[in-house]
Write a structure and sequence with these properties.
The complex is a heterotrimer of chains A (417), B (330) and C (287). Chain A contains 13 helices and 14 strands. By secondary structure, chain A is of the alpha/beta class. With 330 residues, chain B is mainly alpha-helical. Chain B has a two-stranded antiparallel ribbon. The radius of gyration of chain B is 20 Å and the shape is globular. Chain B starts with a helix and ends in a 12-residue tail after the last helix. Chain C is an all-alpha fold. The radius of gyration of chain C is 19 Å and the shape is globular. The relative contact order of chain C is 0.21. The chains are: A alpha/beta (417), B mainly alpha (330), C mainly alpha (287). Chains in contact: A-B, A-C, B-C. The interface between B and C is large, with 51 and 49 residues.
């Protein structure tokens, strides 16, 4: 491999990009960058995210009258920019904060994207958004939950997803209701993996429950991507908690489901924290032996003919799977970003930033179950929320709580297999 | 003076690179090559010259990176302060780890270093002071120039280049000293070296400590550039493997081997990711893996060995002087 | 002893047997040729995918999947030997690491390309359900893997110690030049060793697939366990891999249950380093 030739190619490519810049502006294409884990351990999530964003692109760029008043759907392209089309450049963060940052830099400086979205893992969102901040490019995140992301005083970072403190409150309120309905919810155990996701979510939940006067009875941490979870399941089996809250990625979630069956352990109630338990792989692989697991989600499929149902059909054509919560939150973040660009009527970063700050989407303008989208001074969506869903038939999650959003009544105890 | 001609030309080209290739990504790519060249060259001291294949060098990398980020996160100091702190800690760790593990032969040493680095990673994942699983981040909006948080890659490029030159200088000085002589003897046959009176254990330990300190500097520089460190990116086994394969690919035990390895692998990785990564089909690593396999298959001694041999052949054909480079040929 | 504790230990032994199973191939290669195969975990992964394909296309379980995995992997082993290993063995040890690391990426992402990144599984009771013996639950699929682990270990051990093929292989590993003078062709012997080792690894993969998830990156998770198992047992010692595998399985399970799951690997690595301190050649390795 001749390095100077490669460098030369790179140089030529960037030159071409510079020359092509004004041409693009004329043909009205808005370029947005998306950084996701498209290889490595989290690739399954990244590839679903990619399908979700491609689906969103289809909805935005082509006329979809069947989606009714859903923002950006009716006409082809962006009305605020004279029908301009949206083009997304995807990049692979390879599960590395360094690669994520390199790719964000490339998207900004070589691909000339006007805004960024991504990057799934909180650590990578952190490094990638740091580059966006330095270059003054808006970064809209829809799925990373680490609390510190919005505590950095960034001016160009916006996050639409609910974060750990929101889930903690959701779980607590849900359990309170279930207790009122006659379920036993006195001792709550948390089992979580020990990467940044599991640790931070579990500690926030534990703190929130303690604050409400109901400390967590048993807290089991384990290393992610483990080879075996028998001991953890046996610990639960011995302590017999009334409720088990599980925070796991897909690989471990599958192992837990299989091991629980092998060891014949069924807690009265399982609440899964999204992520692995929402992954389509989980439902396909072990859904039938995890019937009745509760999960939090901001996404629900809805009735046939509804906006969400149609979006899911479009998504299914791209990815082969039903839409899961993580992909849906990513898709929503992308819609929020494109909506801001549309309202800004410009691809100038500062104008997009101003439009994002002014975002005030109502619940009926979203494809996801948030109460709305409105950012606070730190860039966090203050109206993000979720519902509790349940895998009743082992194939599809249905919304069961709160009652206003419920499609079915919650079923207890946990059925398993 | 002819032997200095080519190194001088190369040095001038390296210094001029970011002025010739001016886009931010090209400059960053240059900086990345130098960064990996630093850590691979540091690894080369113990892995190449002493022949002790450490697969746990990421521990020292992590020390430097955590020291730099810790200085900022805990004491609001410049990450630069972390450089000496990282060196001290990693040299100490090298001494403590080196004494028992360097006794081990061949692959047992490699496995022991893997175990040590995994152990450190697992422990750090549970230490809140070091950010546990969440990691430590550096300044994004710099307070002053000493926060080492730049938008352009240019300052990093020249900082890394200076560090690389120092690393290579130290390596060169070491190899041309008595220590280098001992190291080569140990690599070829430790038993023979011992029987001839070389203090093998002590020399290996010194090399290990020197290598650890330099690796740590590389770790600190990495953290400054990316502004973030967590157990996976700072202590993951993949970084140890990268140091090793860059040195091996370029030519382990040769002064410029790791630099050449980095100059091939880093662009290969970045460019294949740029071109193929966005498709999400895993093709990046199919290409990357296949190229590594081919290089290992057809040039097991490293690229530099091949260059040296070609160079030597050209020289012998021009004049009948015996080529120096021939001693490197396998 | 409480039932739960017995269950933990039984679970650990069954897990350990699986560790031993997927390590036996690695130790064979390592001992014979002094090569670290960084692609070993990905060989296991390929075995798992063979089992998956067999199930998807033919609806068949391990009865078909295991022999087929052995066959496919043995073929791959021979190809890898002649295509890569034979050349890198002429170079320094680093070239072996370089070559097999590249091979690992190539195999892992070729599968990723073909099958996608989704996690997959075989049906729950493809081997049979779970027995209940005096309150101790034993999964049929894990038991099968454990029994096969013992058989494979025993078989490999017999092969190396009791057959002429085995003595020829050992002769090559000890002194390839001398063996050649005796009329043994080192190339053939080493290719056979690769075929056998890869077949054993394929069997391991096909069996693990019956109770584990299947994904392109699963090899990474398993490889490091195999490395520790093999070096704890002693490079090249097949009984050593069995003992070390069982030991690690039980220690992992017990420490996860008694101390906490995040500490189990810390305990295993510490113990491993401690063993190397006192026995630098591993538990059953030769100096």
């Amino acid at each position: 491999m001749n390095f100077s030739r490669v460098a030369g190619l790179l140089c030529a490519a960037s030159l071409a990009a510079v020359l092509a810049g004004p041409v693009y502006a004329q043909s009205k294409v808005v370029k947005i960058g998306a950084v996701f884990p498209l290889s490595g351990n989290a690739a399954s999530a990244g590839i679903h995210a990619k399908a979700a964003i491609e689906t969103a692109m289809d909805i935005i760029n082509n006329a979809h009258p069947e989606l009714g008043n859903f923002p950006l759907a009716k006409d082809a392209g962006l009305s605020g920019l004279g029908g301009a089309k949206v083009d997304v450049v995807f990049a692979d963060n390879q599960g590395s904060p360094a690669t994520g940052q390199n790719q964000a830099l490339r998207l900004i400086t070589e691909e000339k994207v006007v805004a960024l979205t991504g990057a799934y893992q909180s650590g990578i969102t952190l490094t990638a958004s740091a580059i966006a901040e330095k270059y003054g490019i808006p970064f809209v995140n829809g799925e990373s939950v680490a609390a510190n992301l919005t505590e950095r005083g960034f001016k160009w970072f916006f996050r639409t997803t609910p974060i750990a403190s929101d889930f903690a409150k959701l779980y607590h309120d849900f359990l309170k209701d279930m207790k009122a309905a006659g379920a036993k919810t006195d001792s709550v155990a948390i089992i979580h993996e020990n990467t940044e996701y599991g640790t931070s979510v579990a500690s926030v939940i534990a703190a929130a429950f303690k604050e409400q006067g109901q400390p967590i009875a048993l807290d089991i941490a384990y290393s992610a991507n483990t080879t075996d979870v028998q001991s953890q399941v046996l610990q639960l089996k011995e302590k017999k908690p009334d409720v088990v809250i599980m925070v796991s990625y897909a690989s471990d979630a599958i192992l837990f489901a299989k091991t629980m069956k092998a060891l014949d352990y069924k807690p009265p109630m399982i609440i899964a924290d999204d992520s692995g338990f929402s992954d389509p792989s989980f439902i396909k692989a072990v859904g039938k032996i995890s019937q009745g697991v509760f999960n939090r989600s901001s996404w629900s499929l809805g009735a046939p003919g509804s906006v969400t149902y149609i979006i899911n059909e479009l998504y299914k054509k791209k990815s082969g799977d039903d839409m899961d919560d993580t992909a849906a939150r990513q898709m929503q973040a992308f819609f929020v970003l494109v909506d801001a660009i549309n309202r800004a009527g410009s691809t100038e970063p500062a104008k997009i930033q101003a439009a994002l700050k002014a975002t005030d989407l109502k619940a009926d303008q979203l494809m996801i179950g948030y109460k709305g989208v409105k950012f606070d001074a730190k860039g966090q969506n203050t109206l993000a929320s979720g519902v509790v869903i349940q895998l009743q038939d082992g194939e599809h999650y249905v919304a069961v709580w709160p009652k206003a959003n419920a499609a079915a009544a919650p079923v207890i105890p946990y059925k398993g297999w | 003076m002819r032997r200095f001609l080519w190194p001088t030309i190369v040095l001038v080209l390296v210094i001029a690179y970011p002025l010739l290739f001016t886009t931010p990504f090209q400059q960053r790519l240059g900086a990345l090559i130098l960064l990996y060249a630093i850590i691979a060259s540091a690894w080369n001291i113990v892995g190449g010259y002493a022949g002790q294949v450490s697969v746990g060098h990421v521990v020292f990398f992590g020390c430097g990176a955590y020291a730099a980020m810790g200085a900022y996160a805990h004491f609001a100091l410049s990450p630069l302060v972390g450089i000496p702190a990282g060196i001290v800690v990693s040299v100490l760790i090298a001494a403590v780890v080196g004494v028992p593990t360097l006794r081990l032969s061949g692959h047992y040493f490699s496995m022991a270093t893997i175990a040590v680095s995994e152990l450190v990673r697992l422990i750090v994942t549970n230490v809140d002071y070091l950010g546990a699983a969440v990691g430590l981040s550096g300044p994004t909006v710099p307070r002053n120039v000493f926060d080492m948080s730049f938008t352009s890659a240019l300052p990093y490029y020249y900082l890394f280049l200076a560090t690389l030159l120092i690393t290579l200088g130290i390596t060169w000085w070491m190899t041309s000293s008595r220590m280098g002589f001992y190291l080569r003897a140990i690599r070829d046959s430790e038993r023979a070296a011992r029987s001839l009176g070389a203090p093998a254990s002590r020399i290996k330990l010194y090399a290990f400590m020197l290598s650890a300190g330099l690796t740590s500097v590389g770790g600190s520089l990495y953290a400054m550039m990316f502004g973030f460190i967590d157990p996976e990116s700072g202590l993951g086994i993949l970084i140890s493997v990268k140091m090793l394969i860059m040195a091996a690919l370029g030519g382990a035990g040769l002064l410029f081997g790791p630099l050449i390895g980095a100059a091939i692998l880093v662009p290969l990785e970045e460019i294949s990711n740029n071109l193929l990564g966005g498709k999400g089909a895993g093709l990046t690593f199919v290409v990357y893996g296949a190229i590594i396999v081919l290089l290992a298959r057809f040039q097991p001694g490293g690229i530099l060995t091949l260059l040296n041999r070609l160079w030597a052949r050209r020289r012998t054909s021009r004049s009948s002087v015996t080529a120096e480079g021939a001693s490197h040929a396998p | 002893m409480s039932t739960i504790l017995v269950q933990v230990i039984v679970g650990g032994l069954l897990l350990g047997a699986v560790y031993a199973l997927f390590s036996s191939g690695l130790t064979l290669i390592w001992g014979m040729m002094n090569i670290i195969n960084f692609a070993h975990g990905d060989f296991v992964m390929l075995g798992m995918y063979v089992a998956f394909v067999v199930y998807t296309l033919l609806g068949a379980g391990p009865l078909v999947g295991v022999p087929l995995a052995a066959l496919v992997l043995a073929t791959l082993g021979v190809i890898v030997y002649f295509g890569l290993i034979r050349s890198v063995m002429k170079g320094p040890m680093l070239a072996q690491i370089l070559g097999t690391f590249g091979l690992a990426l190539l195999l892992r992402y070729a599968v990723f390309w073909g099958f996608g990144a989704n996690f997959m599984t075989l049906p729950e009771n493809i081997v049979g359900g779970t027995f209940d013996v005096f309150g101790i639950r034993i999964q049929a699929s894990r038991l099968l893997a454990g029994v096969v682990a013992l058989l494979v270990t025993w078989g490999l051990h017999l092969l190396l110690t009791r057959t002429s093929l085995g003595s020829k292989m050992l002769a090559v590993s000890e002194d390839s030049m001398a063996a050649q003078l005796m009329g043994i062709r080192p190339d053939t012997m080493q290719a056979i060793a690769w075929a056998i080792a890869a077949a054993a690894t394929g069997i391991a993969g096909a069996l693990i697939a019956t109770f584990f998830y299947i994904a392109p990156t699963v090899g990474e998770t398993l490889a490091i366990v195999a490395f520790v198992t093999v070096s704890l047992g002693g490079f090249g010692s097949i009984p050593g891999a069995l003992v070390a595998g069982l030991l690690i399985g039980v220690i992992e399970s017990l420490s996860a249950y008694l101390i906490g799951a995040v500490y189990k690997d810390i305990v295993v690595y510490s113990l491993f380093l401690l063993v190397l301190w006192f026995r630098p050649q591993g538990l059953m390795g030769k100096m």
